[in-house]
Amino acid sequence: MSLENSSIPSPFDFHAGDSPLLVSMPHSGLNLTPEVAAGLTEKAAKLPDTDWYIPELYGDLAELGVGSIKANYSRYVIDLNRPYDDKPLYSSKTTGLFPDILFTDEPIFQTGKTPSDAHRLACKEQIWRPYHDTISNELERLKDKFGYAILFDAHSIASQVPMLFEGQLPDFNWGTNDGESCDIQLPSLLTQLLGPHYTQVLNGRFKGGYITRSFGQPENGIHAIQLELSQATYLDEIAAQQNDYHLDQNKLPFIQQQLREVIEGLLQVKF
Q1: CA angle 12-227-76, nearest 5°?
Q2: How many domains does the chain have?
Q3: E strand residue ranges, 35-169
Q4: What is the CATH number of the domain that holds 220?
Q5: What is the mean pLDDT of the chain?
């Protein structure tokens, strides 16, 4: 089915909060458009590069009065953490607005089944643009109400991805675009909140994607920080290597408690 004369249903879920904090989840979506679904390779159809279970990990946001926006479509349809013009964010190898390779450097689409230019334009206008417009409008609303706003961009990734980085990724990978997307208070506070059993790094391999870089304007009262969470903190990684993605129930309560402390810490920050 072509999208040229039809609309994409429910591109994302948005819930306004009653605090200065908004949490964005751009890579947890699992939905596919018919054109993308029809073209995926067998391996890509398992959506291995998804930020698995991010909404479940941050399940108590509404209880804390925190707003959220969650993508419903897979990054294989369109990557919401890339710029509209697809300008590269990193000098090293990465994936773009419309990924054509998996994180294993294998093709996402079968030969001759890459989505059309018309399909991609529809995704930009019906998924990417309204997602970013909603974030922009909500941050302005929060800033008007509280005097400042904080955007927390929530991600996760496998602990080992040789195409993107060497060795084992730390558990918590904070990104502030080398200090440009937020006041130093945020990373200073957050890095002190982690328990000793978790490892972390600030502005390592992941410095924050387009969402963090574009919305983070601390000079204008809007602060943004990205967390790239290692999936070793909550998934059964042995099963994940076989494309079987499920939560490790032994790890889950610890990571959920730690993330709640992160969110509560952000709510205590004042500018």
Answers
A1: 45
A2: 1
A3: 67-71, 149-157
A4: 3.40.630.40
A5: 94
Predicted TM-score (pTM) of this structure? 0.95
Residue 81 lies in a domain: yes
Helix (H) or strand (E) holding 15: strand 12-15
Instruction: Give the SS3 label for residue 246.
Output: coil
Token pair in block for residue 148: 């400042």
**Which single residue is written with the structure tokens 């054509």?**
100
Considering the domain boundaries, does residue 7 fall inside one? no
Range of the domain at 28: 12-268
Distance (Å, rounded) from C-alpha 79 to C-alpha 244? Answer: 23
* pLDDT tens profile 7-66: 899 999 999 999 999 999 999 999 999 999 999 999 999 999 999 999 999 999 999 999
* Residue 151, CA distances (Å) to 20, 79, 122, 135, 188 in order: 9, 18, 26, 9, 16
Residue 263: inside a domain: yes
pLDDT (tens digit, 9 = 90+) per residue, 218-263? 999 999 999 999 999 999 989 998 999 999 999 999 999 999 999 9
**Quick check: is 4 in a domain?**
no
